[in-house]
Amino acid sequence: MPKDITIAKSAGFCFGVRRAIDTVYEQIKTEARVYTYGPIIHNQEVINDLAAKDVKIINSLDELEAIKMGTIVIRSHGVAKLVYEAIKRQQLKCIDATCPFVKKIHRIVEQASNEGRHIVIIGDEKHPEVEGIKGWCNGPVSIVGNSTEIAAFSAKCNKRICIVAQTTFNYNKFQELVEIFNEKMYDNNVVNTICNATEERQTEAKSIAEKVDAMIVVGDRHSSNTQKLYDICKKECKNTYYIQTPIDLESKPFQSFSHVGITAGASTPNNIIEEVQKNVRIKF
Q1: Which of these, 29, 101, 124, 264, could form a disulfide with 11 (CB 3.0-4.6 Å)?
Q2: Element of type H or E holding 181
Q3: 8 A C-beta contact, residue 70 and residue 31
């Protein structure tokens, strides 16, 4: 049995996720038909509970345009400008639960692209937040996540660029990629749009992973920020495990570790974190 367990104080729902979830549950109380544009968060437990309460998920503009009545909740990741326009055309009620940090990025890229700058988003091209940010750009936009993609970008770009980041991107990696852009002598307008909660969560996870014998990272497999936490912890602690629920602990060899650390992604409910902690204490 581990002698010590250290739980990250920053583990669990961030402000933006909590706000979005609370928004949906508030709408359920008063609205007959509630939809979310995309899953409200990347956590299947929450999604299942909302589905049981008859909350529907819209996954495309075509699905949205088929809806004639109801309330559309925009998730914390945000959406492209054209989604808002489609909701307005359909005369549907729109409740915007976009994280304020993401909203800020929308304003930045819209203004910068109107000024003629090529927008560079440092992040995961397939992540819904990045797709939403891209949808507020009124000119050229490129998405890069590593040095190889920067090299490909350089071959086709003009010299005036605006660089922003997915809010959950790895802070140290963001700094490294920005430095590569600086070395290329672009006319750079760099805005660090990684949210404070993400940076704090990553810094704390790294600090804990450096000191423990094993590290548990809790979160949904589709959660980008949880995956980044896992990558950070794995570099510091070779015995790092990515789990979704306490059941996943069964196959892990925690009996041999004296000090275990626990952190969790921004979409992980507190009850799951507590169950993981309890299971580690009792079973191992």
Answers
A1: 264
A2: helix 171-183
A3: yes
Answer yes or no: do 184 and 230 share one domain: no
Any catalytic annotation for residue 149? Answer: no
Contact 212, 260 (CB under 8 A): yes
**Tokens for 220?**
């949904």
Q: What is the mean pLDDT of residues 214-220?
A: 94
Q: Are residues 79 and 150 in the same domain?
A: no
The structure's pTM equals 0.86
CA atoms within 13 A on the CB side of 62: 0
**CATH number of 176's domain:** 3.40.1010.20
- 158-172 confidence digits (pLDDT tens): 678 999 999 999 989
Say which of 26, 65, 125, 129 is annotated catalytic.
129
Q: Edge-to-edge strands of the sheet including 214-218?
A: 4-7, 259-264, 214-218, 240-243
CA distance 90 to 281: 52
In whole angstroms, give the CA distance from residue 18 to residue 76: 9
Q: What is the dihedral of CA 13, 14, 19, 21, to 10 degrees?
A: -30
- Mapping DSSP onto H, E and C, the string for 241-270 reads EEECCHHHHHHCCHHHCCEEEEEECCCCCH
